[in-house]
Amino acid sequence: MAGQSTATPTPRTPPEPSAFALNLADMLAPTRPMQYLVSALALVGFLLGTYLVYRAGPLLKRRLTDDGAEGLQVAVATLLSICSAGVLVVVWRRTPAVRLALDSISPSPVAGVRLFIVLVALSITYTATRVAKRFVRVGESRNAITSHQREVLHHLVQILLFIPAFLFSLTLYGIPAQNLLLSASALGVVLGLAARQTLGAVLAGFVLLFARPFKMGDWVEIDDNEGLVTDISIVNTRLQTFDDEMVMIPNDQITDSAITNRSRNERLRVQADVGVDYDTDVPEACRIATEAMDGIEMLMDGPEPEVVVKEFGDSAVTLNLRFWISDPTIQKKWAAQNAVMEAVKQAFEAHDVAIPFPQRVLSEREQTDGLDVRAVDTDASADGDAPDETGDAGE
After folding, report:
1. Could you tell me which CATH number the domain at 214-261 has?
2. 267-350 sits in which CATH class?
3. Orientation angle between helical segments 177-194 and 196-211, nearest 10 degrees
4. Is there a contact between 150 and 135 (Cβ–Cβ < 8 Å)?
5. Domain ranges in the chain with CATH number 3.30.70.100
6. In the structure, how many helices (H) and strands (E) does the chain have?
7. CA dist., res. 204 & res. 191, Å (int)
8. Which of 12, 144, 334, 373 can pair with 139 through a Cys bridge, CB separation 3.0 to 4.6 Å?
9. What is the DSSP-derived secondary structure letter of residue 357?
10. Which tens digit of pLDDT belongs to each residue from 104-158?
11. Where are the beta strands (DSSP E) in the chain?
12. Which residues pair with 309 in a beta bridge?
């Protein structure tokens, strides 16, 4: 029986690159250093474009539905990836290999099974991201997370699910995933060294988003900046000061600073000082001031307003008025202070409690250089009586 010979398939040679592709490659990157530079710019452009598409999400959702905005974001990100891949193919003169790969795609059972598996993997991944997004929205509706945390969690889940699906799809077509991971690691090291400050701010942004030392609308004080939180991103935090100025603070600076959140407990203790005359019955003055504050509606009933003796001043006994306001804002704090000071002043006037002005007492001392200084009766001066002249010029 004659032996049957099996024909081994001859490998197909890649087609010659087109003149247009060669001219474009020579124009973009004629040398090896230029190839590396253009490749790095293409990757950075892809990452920057993807970030801008992500940042445009809230604006798109104001004009479109959530699904429409996400679909547009995915389409733009896909277009950016295709453009970046095209630049890399042209710069590194790999158009013949791409053409050969496209020509090798022919309708066959194996190719159909591979394509079907890839589509199933991507469909499962997309469904998993939608389910995860539903859970994230439930957490937001229960006030467990903020809207910014919802966005960050959603995109993190997308990245964590789509990257394994993408690598799995590549292995089906014989492309080793470890090579891509090594290239990505090298690129990550380069970007980490070049933009370590920005990456530090991004990591600090994740810490702020999940540690939640403050939220949107909170009244906070960070270093010398005080105002309302208007935006929290993964790079910086925006404060609107009470002078109507917008301050942007890097997140890494915030994590290294002391943060005072005046809205955290949904209440704030406000203090004001008032002085009474030394001849005044201090306990009675404290009682009058407390009753005056009890009649102000914008103050909280509990904890109750209180008055304590703060210090013995130069001209008066200083009383410290302490009271609480709910849902504090700077406008509410100022309004409460004004209301308390007006009410206490009226109550003191009604009960003849004097609020003294600064006074100075002049005392007599021995004559030193021909000038005799003696005490002046300030009460007599206030009544219009002129003081006696007791000093004579020195001889």
Report:
1. 2.30.30.60
2. alpha beta
3. 100
4. no
5. 267-350
6. 13, 8
7. 17
8. 144
9. P
10. 655 666 767 777 888 888 888 888 888 887 777 776 666 666 666 676 777 778 8
11. 219-222, 225-232, 236-241, 246-250, 259-261, 267-276, 306-312, 317-326
12. 319
